[in-house]
Automatic annotation (TrEMBL):
Gene3D superfamilies (UniProt xref): 3.30.1490.220, 3.40.50.11370
Keywords: ATP-binding, Isomerase, Kinase, Magnesium, Metal-binding, Nucleotide-binding, Transferase
SUPFAM superfamilies for the chain: Glutathione synthetase ATP-binding domain-like (SSF56059)
GO molecular function: ATP binding; inositol-1,3,4-trisphosphate 5-kinase activity; inositol-1,3,4-trisphosphate 6-kinase activity; inositol-3,4,5,6-tetrakisphosphate 1-kinase activity; isomerase activity; magnesium ion binding
Gene Ontology CC annotations of this record: cytoplasm
Keyword Nucleotide-binding in annotation: yes
EC number: 2.7.1.134, 2.7.1.159
Organism: Littorina saxatilis
Signal peptide range: none
Name of the protein this chain belongs to: Inositol-tetrakisphosphate 1-kinase
Region annotation (Disordered) ranges: 318-337, 379-426
Residues annotated as domain ATP-grasp: 111-320
Length: 426
């Protein structure tokens, strides 16, 4: 029987119900072993593979925490002395995600970003000073346009990693907290696409996101991304207002989203990641805005089955490299180059995405009833930290005018009901 060690935080383990899925692995000839990082792994092995979520430990280790440094040495030391053991994912690859600026630089090397004009990363720049004049110059040189999203450099390892700000003009650059990455904000009709990657398989889940925002002399908005984009979020920043419904809706290209997931996986040298993608409602370009190591995989049915299949496939590939005998045929998988998805799997994937699409449509329809017809955009600032509107005025017109304003988006959504969200396997 193969032995696979794993380490994830207690909180994440309970959320995923990791222990309850042991039979899935045991029935495939895999013994799952929970690692104790306080003890040498040689005493707990041998291991054919180690699966981990140690981004928080890595962040603390890089910040000088002695205990975390020992944990990382324990894992890396075992992997170095046991090359037969696969590390999912490599620690060096995981570490690259911790620094958002380096993460974005790595995304720029992605083959799809380099060759397909439909896929981009919004312009960004690293800010290390609170000097407003210097920051104005850096933003201009990098082509970063307002509104801007200000994101902490550290992407994991702290609650602060999720606290961001929207700055609408250069007059409010004093609100920048450094070190950070400033990135152009692209309007995307309050829809975020989570592309989850498990080995050679990609899964697309739709989530709420920030509503459309425009440059101007508005107060800075502070928010927590975990509140804004969590499943079922009803945050004020998700609300679609009168200005937003003037933007065209975009039908997602499911196959392109999957190709994007596979391409980022190759560029980052990681096989268990989540990629945040938005679609610019003006250019219809697919913009990569964040990458996470070993995310929660909410919305991915049978995650542990896919994880098991990926581990088995990796083991077969490794065995094939270590011997001269031909490797067994891998279990059916779906990727952008080869169609190996069974009809049952394809149907299930299509059904999952159809459900996701309906949830998104329902979300927009519900939010369209909450349209804020205010003509005074300057007065309506929102604090992410308080989660409340402040000082907004409501100058809505008649019910007929409101209905007329909503009609374009409702008509488009009715049209989208005929959209097939299949992943279109070739």
């Amino acid at each position: 029987m193969k032995r696979v060690g794993y380490w994830i935080s207690e909180k994440k383990s309970k959320k995923l119900n990791f222990e309850e899925h042991r039979p899935i692995f045991r029935n495939a000839g895999i013994e799952l072993v929970k690692l104790d990082l306080t003890q040498p792994l040689d005493n707990q092995g041998p291991f054919d593979a180690i699966v981990h979520k140690v981004t928080d430990i890595l962040a603390k280790a890089d910040n000088g925490n002695a205990t975390s440094q020992q944990y990382i040495r324990n894992i890396q030391g075992y992997a170095d002395s046991h090359p037969e053991c696969m590390l999912l994912d490599p620690l060096d690859s995981t570490r690259r995600l911790l620094d958002r600026y380096k993460q974005y630089q790595q995304v720029c090397t992605c083959d799809l970003v380099c060759t397909d004009p439909r896929v981009i990363i919004p312009t960004f720049v690293e800010l290390t000073t609170t000097d407003v004049e210097q920051n104005k110059m850096k933003l201009a040189e990098a082509g970063v346009t307002f509104p801007i999203v200000v994101k902490p450099i550290l992407s994991h390892g702290s609650r602060l990693a999720h606290e961001m700000a929207i700055i609408f003009s250069k007059d409010h650059l004093q609100d920048v907290e450094v070190p950070c990455v400033a990135q152009s904000f692209l309007n995307h009709n309050a829809i975020l696409y989570k592309v989850f990657v498990v080995g050679s398989r990609q899964f697309v889940v739709q989530r709420p996101s920030l509503k459309n925002l425009y440059p101007g002399n508005h107060a800075t908005i502070f928010f927590d991304t975990q509140e804004v984009s969590k499943p079922g979020s009803a945050h004020p920043l998700n609300e679609i207002d009168a200005a937003s419904i003037q933007e065209p809706l975009v039908k997602p290209d499911w196959q392109l989203l999957e190709q994007l997931g596979a391409s980022i996986s190759r560029a980052m040298d990681m096989c268990l990641i989540g990629i945040d993608v938005i679609i610019d409602c003006q250019t219809q370009q697919y913009a990569i805005i964040d990458i996470n190591s070993f995310p929660g995989f909410e919305g991915v049915d049978d995650f542990f089955v896919h994880l098991r299949d990926h581990i088995l496939q990796q083991m077969r590939t490794k065995d094939n490299c270590d011997t001269t005998s031909p490797a067994p045929q891998p279990a059916p998988t779906f990727n952008t180059n080869t169609t190996t998805v069974t009809k049952t799997a394809a149907a299930k994937t299509a059904a999952t995405n159809a459900a996701n699409l309906k949830v998104s449509q329902k979300f927009i329809l519900e939010q369209s009833r909450l349209i804020d017809c205010s003509t005074d955009n300057t007065a309506g600032s929102v604090s992410l930290k308080s989660g409340k509107r402040s000082g907004s005025k409501n100058s809505c017109g008649s019910k007929e005018e409101e209905a007329a304003a909503k009609e374009p988006i409702l008509a488009q959504l009715r049209s989208n009901n005929n959209l097939s969200p299949d992943l279109h396997p070739h």
